[in-house]
Amino acid sequence: MCGIVAYIGERKAYPILIKGLQRLEYRGYDSAGVALVNGSINSYKRMGKVKDLEEFVSDSSTDGTIGIGHTRWATHGEPNDTNAHPHTSMNGKFTLVHNGIIENYAHLKKELVNRGYDFKSETDTEVLVNFIENIYLEQKVDAELAVRVALSKVVGAYGLVISCADEKDKLIAARKGSPLVIGVGQNEYFLGSDASPIIEYTDQVIYMNDEDVAILTKEDLVLKNIQNDAQKPKIQKVELTIDEIDKGDYEHYMLKEIYEQPTSIMDTIRGRITMDKSKIFLGGINDEMQKLTTAKRIIIVACGTSWHAGMVGEYLFEEFARVPVEVEYASEFRYRNPVINSDDVLIAISQSGETADTLAAIKMAKEQGATIIGICNVVGSSIPRETHAGVYTHAGVEIGVASTKAFTSQVTALMMMAFTIGQKRGSLYDELYKQLINELTLVPEKIKTILEKTADIKDIASLYKDANNALYLGRGYLFPVALEGALKLKEISYIHAEGYPAAEMKHGPIALIDENMPVFVVATKDKSYEKIVSNIQEVKARNGKVIAVVTEGDTTIKKMADHVIEVPDCHEAIAPLLTVIPLQIISYHIAVLRGCDVDQPRNLAKSVTVE
Fold it and tell me: What is the enclosing helix (H) or strand (E) of 605?
């Protein structure tokens, strides 16, 4: 969840660390800190955002060409100056930054207290840094061995960068379950939780694997595992540019990413549909196509917005491929004792490719013989490396914590998979297959027409910015869209919102409806249209305020609803890609009008790399 950045080389470290922390702030923004090596190790840390740290450090010495930095999403201990990273051991021998959770910290802390250690913070990280120091002092070993011995005894997840006061010319990095990337320069190295702090300086990176330990000096990098076995660094070129992580002229990253969806969807389609729009080719899963077409069951695991995309996938696979599908929250799936068979296919969906619960679900299903397919946005992340095959979404970097273009790109990938498998299984006849392909290629231009209505949608948002609650209703393919719309409103505006299948409204939620309740209804023309018209009438009979997303030219709902937002006509299976756009826009504008921090909503972080 947290963001780590580090540098060792000839440049001044502090500006690199601060800029890196700003780029990683979407991963956590409860507190931030840096430690700089310059004769001694000087640490500065502050509750709040990176700008608060900059103000705090402004009058201090920031010399040094080696340093580590951290921006925090709190797990153990509330956000404050003391709990902020970096943490230094009691005797000052080690300073480290940490992303992850040390699960056996309480046991280790008890042992350390018995050995005379005092603790200032509430964090598991302070336990870890003292545990490393205790091994270092008692066993009289070098820093690297002390780190490897300590990590062999801890339980949990970590991405770590460590500096030792007695070995100031080096940094030690380690990873298990939390991402860490090494940027390779000329007599310099950069580290980050992802590549965004690194790309300004080098496009050559090493993605660390679980249980890797890297020992870095200005001139050299040694990569090994915890057991001291040498590992061969695999240097890759990172496909990311400064422009992609720049906000440009947009007020917020979220707004920029909403407007990027015509491009991100086209990039997900690009090269995968033939020029004559007659066939889909997904090279990333071609080697596993036989297992996909003969699967007895598909299990989709994901979290948050990716779970909503998976829900759309369930409708797609069952309708067009005629395969039973189960959509599971990865966090629940991994802690049940699920029945998994060797002829099952598990599809794991994650924007970051580092979601801890989804990774754990993948590993469990692999052990039981299932075929694992990944849908992921970040090249080189953990999920693509753990799966048998997969599809990259090519949505580009997504920095806004509330996911937008990742959702539509994931749904696009699921559509192409479902249409392909259905066609190969013979359950999707050729004429409809080609129609769906053609309609999918038209989506980017159709989204552009919806984005042209942003001013009108903002006007609707202004009427409901003070609401305390909201309902979102949809049926069929549009039920997951209702769930996603409600999530967006909750995430960034802090208005309580719930999504329901429209028919379920009568089974409880209808009791909430009064003249103050906005009800967002996703109601494009499909086979459930007449039913959802009836649901709207039920809301209006109780004085609810209806904001309906409808197909262009709809006159029936327009007469009933308080507001309508029209989207272009399309096949009902394609509709989720269009109907979600107005819900993203309205949530964005409500949040802005309420004065909320859209890109960094309270208590949230972009990538959930801890349980």
Answer: none
The Cα-based distances of 536 to 61, 472, 486, 489, 541 in angstroms read: 64, 11, 17, 21, 9
Both tokens assigned to 175: 């990873």
Residue whose entry in the numeric block shows the structure tokens 């269009």: 578
Pairing of strands 181-184, 189-192: antiparallel
Beta carbons within 10 angstroms of residue 320's beta carbon: 23
Does 74 or 196 have the greater pLDDT score? 196
454-464 vs 575-593: helix axis angle to the nearest 10?
A: 50
Residue 421 CA from chain centroid, whole number:
27
Tokens standing for residue 211: 């249980």
The lowest-confidence range among 23-27, 34-38, 251-255, 559-563 is: 23-27
The pair of structure tokens assigned to 323 is 């395969």
Do residues 93 and 164 lie in contact, with contact meaning Cβ atoms separated by under 8 Å?
yes
- Indicate if the pLDDT at residue 435 is higher than 70: yes
CB 17 within 8 A of CB 185: no
Looking at residue 44, its pLDDT comes to 95
Using DSSP, state whether 213 is helix, strand or coil.
strand
Catalytic residues: 2, 606
The Cα–Cα gap between 318 and 325 comes to 7
How many C-beta atoms surround the C-beta of residue 274 within 10 A? 11
Place of tokens 């980017």: 444
* Residue 347 φ/ψ, nearest 5 degrees: -105, 120
**pLDDT on residue 354:** 85
The residue written with tokens 């209806």 in the block is 546
**Over the stretch 347-377, which tens digit does the pLDDT of each residue have?**
999 998 888 899 999 999 999 999 999 999 9
Q: Rounded CA gap, 157 and 155, in Å?
A: 7
- Give the 3-state secondary structure percentages of the chain, helix then strand then coil, rounded to 5: 40, 25, 35
Q: What is the pLDDT of residues 167-191, one digit of tens each?
A: 999 999 999 988 899 999 999 999 9
Contacts 24+ apart (CB under 8 A), 448-456: 448/262, 449/568, 450/567, 450/568, 450/578, 450/581, 450/582, 451/258, 451/259, 451/262, 451/581, 451/585, 453/565, 453/566, 453/582, 454/585, 456/565
Which range is least confidently modeled, 62-76, 436-450, 505-519? 505-519
